[in-house]
Amino acid sequence: MKVEDLRNTAWRFNERLRYIAKRGEVLEEEYEPIVREIIKRVKEEGDKAITYYTEKFDGVKLTPDTMEVPYEELENAYNEIEEDVRSALEIAYERIRRFHELQREKAFFMEESGTLLGMKVVPLERVGVYVPGGKAAYPSTVLMNVVPALVAGVEEIIMVSPKPNKYTLAAAFISGVSRVYQIGGAQAIAGLAYGTEMIPKVDKIVGPGNIYVAIAKKLLFGVVDIDMIAGPSEILIISDGSCEPSWIATDLLSQAEHDEMAGAFMITTDEKHALRVKEELERLMEDFPRKEIAKKSIERFGTIFLVEDMFKACEVANYIAPEHLEVLTEDPFSLLPYIKHAGAIFLGRYSTEALGDYILGPNHTLPTGGTARFFSPLGVYDFIKRSSVLFVSKEGFERLAEPTESIAKAEGLFAHFTSVRIRRET
Amino acid sequence: MKVEDLRNTAWRFNERLRYIAKRGEVLEEEYEPIVREIIKRVKEEGDKAITYYTEKFDGVKLTPDTMEVPYEELENAYNEIEEDVRSALEIAYERIRRFHELQREKAFFMEESGTLLGMKVVPLERVGVYVPGGKAAYPSTVLMNVVPALVAGVEEIIMVSPKPNKYTLAAAFISGVSRVYQIGGAQAIAGLAYGTEMIPKVDKIVGPGNIYVAIAKKLLFGVVDIDMIAGPSEILIISDGSCEPSWIATDLLSQAEHDEMAGAFMITTDEKHALRVKEELERLMEDFPRKEIAKKSIERFGTIFLVEDMFKACEVANYIAPEHLEVLTEDPFSLLPYIKHAGAIFLGRYSTEALGDYILGPNHTLPTGGTARFFSPLGVYDFIKRSSVLFVSKEGFERLAEPTESIAKAEGLFAHFTSVRIRRET
């Protein structure tokens, strides 16, 4: 864990800060040719290509008929998992659903001088949810990606997950996914985007995945909609020293244990506190099962920044635009107006990220790697689309015909002009 | 103009319909290497690369200092254009602004058993608007792309447009753009995405452009946000024969005159009416200044589909998911509930697309090429982003700690588990 003093410096030019901000840059070009090839084959050969790549990459032999997980298996998984986990997932499901219901979008109409103008809101018909498989298969990913679609009113939710474990299958059962296919990688994304004999074509694909999945989603953006471009995740903690260093250390580690590229950062005004957090973190890490991952993340990116006051802390936080921001100060609400860029803002000592990851209700799919400057948490708004509705009466038309003709002439679009003029002449 | 009979057929397998649906597929791979090269050079060399490519592609010699159009030039353009155009653009600006104000997004909070959860809504700080230049430079593009950003509260709106004409500059003046750069192509997109010595880095890039612009936007998606993946545009008219064939013909032509790839389609139950529209269109087209473009579009894609009833007409329309849908029937509102996929829905004989393109108020930047299945018209919602806000009291924490621990254990994330457990033990 590095300690970096930004007091009395032109902090925007701090090398460490710029290094952190750029860690999300990925060499896509390296992986692109193989992903393009996979997409092309799936588009042309459908299920045959998907089962081919599933054997090649996942080592699993499937036939088109065995790609889909039978509904009974979801139910079995639900019955099989520990009772406390089942109950916890059900509490989480319920809380996530209630929170997301507040995100519903409304149609509107305005009537004005002979025109009636509005927007209609329609849920997407069919969406695909990608859930990473194997060891890092997380039931919380299922809930967080499926529930907003459900609340939006999406009719059919298709989940794909390579080698899904019992927890993800149980979560699929709880959240009412329509179908589950045990496939993954770029081949699963391509299958969802184009549709195959066995897999229905979807309108949008959401959910996290490895570099192949990320590139496939980006390449297929336009054929389908996608959620966001996800990079390595991060936590940033603003601390005034009022919260126990060991609590802060575990919060930092709960990000670092995810992935070697994850970032764990703190900003504080208190130098002694900074050193205590660093010590606690280095001590606690030694006992953690995932310490190899956490250590790499902390060594490469882990940083505590020293600043002179809380306003500068917010400035630096806005520069980093973290996925998760914890404000561990005595009066965290007072800083809220100064925080412009963060995926999720956790306020106060008991609002630890883990609660938000699992159970509080707001979505844990958040913009990473600085993209909180322009991306939002996944939400119901991601699963609807709008259409404009325009009605013009004869009176409204007469009022607006002339200025429309003027602009059409200026743009040199004669047919546009004529489509108005002909209605005036008749 | 082709007439295609879908009555008593398995219409989804109709070849013409599938050909139309696929016309948006672009061979990106062909252009990608050159666009990548441009992006790379702009990222490394900044303004030097931009002026280099501007001379190479646009034949315009610029220095970093002359890339920006001085504010006086905008004002001069405003004073220079014809009075009726100026007044029309001002009416349009005002109507677009008023409509978009209804799209403002609201923050919300919910309080529940010791937790306070919500979302905050923040406008993007700085956005770039791309406006095509030269002959096809449209002032309406400026208004439609700038006003939603303005209503959202974006602080700085940077417009780029190669060889902008007086109308686009006047529209920039009317809509209150912050700065205008007379550059275009992939080099302008890259300049906005990364920032250069003279061009500030933006958070999002919107606006239409040629294939280089489209590919640059897609490649840089993630570095910045982008509006949508735009393909060739189209109009689809559902007609019951109650509207004058010549009116319909001009509406179809006003799409066809845009671009050789544009699509002009009609669906009707009335075979005689179909033939009259076809005749009118072919007759009218001969007098049009842009007839070469319109003819190519009509020959390649122009189609009138015959169906047995209005419900099937809506089904076919939903399959095509057109950018513009005109419902020219006696009672157009009665079909609205059956229309699921369309960018903008124009209802009734006086609601011609040209009015919507320029002056009614709803946005004319619409999803094209079938992407209305999942994309929305450009709106205020494109220029804001959200952050989740999560506060948990000690009581709330005590209630939710156990289920959080259960899920953390199931996911094998020990630091997540510990971050909760440590707060219970202290």
From TrEMBL, chains A, B:
Q: Does the keyword Hydrolase apply?
A: no
Which EC numbers characterise this protein's activity in its record? Answer: 1.1.1.23
Q: Which terms in the Gene Ontology molecular function aspect does this entry carry? A: histidinol dehydrogenase activity; NAD binding; zinc ion binding
**Residues that bind NAD(+), according to the entry?**
130, 187, 210
Task: Enumerate the cofactors the protein uses.
Answer: Zn(2+)
Q: Does the keyword Chaperone apply?
A: no
Q: Where does substrate bind?
A: 233, 255, 258, 324, 357, 411, 416
Among the entry's GO cellular component annotations, what is one? Answer: cytosol
EC primary class: oxidoreductase
User: What residues form the catalytic site here?
Assistant: 323 (proton acceptor), 324 (proton acceptor)
**Annotated Pfam families:** Histidinol_dh (PF00815)
Pathway, according to UniProt? Amino-acid biosynthesis; L-histidine biosynthesis; L-histidine from 5-phospho-alpha-D-ribose 1-diphosphate: step 9/9
Q: What does the record say about how the cofactor binds? A: Binds 1 zinc ion per subunit.
Enzymatic reactions: L-histidinol + 2 NAD(+) + H2O = L-histidine + 2 NADH + 3 H(+)
Q: Where does Zn(2+) bind?
A: 255, 258, 357, 416
**Which domain of life does the UniProt lineage start with?**
Bacteria
Keywords for this entry? Amino-acid biosynthesis, Histidine biosynthesis, Metal-binding, NAD, Oxidoreductase, Zinc
From the UniProt record, give one GO term of the biological process aspect: L-histidine biosynthetic process
Q: What family name appears in the similarity comment?
A: Belongs to the histidinol dehydrogenase family.
Q: What does this protein do?
A: Catalyzes the sequential NAD-dependent oxidations of L-histidinol to L-histidinaldehyde and then to L-histidine.
What protein does this entry describe? Histidinol dehydrogenase
Organism field: Hydrogenobacter thermophilus (strain DSM 6534 / IAM 12695 / TK-6)
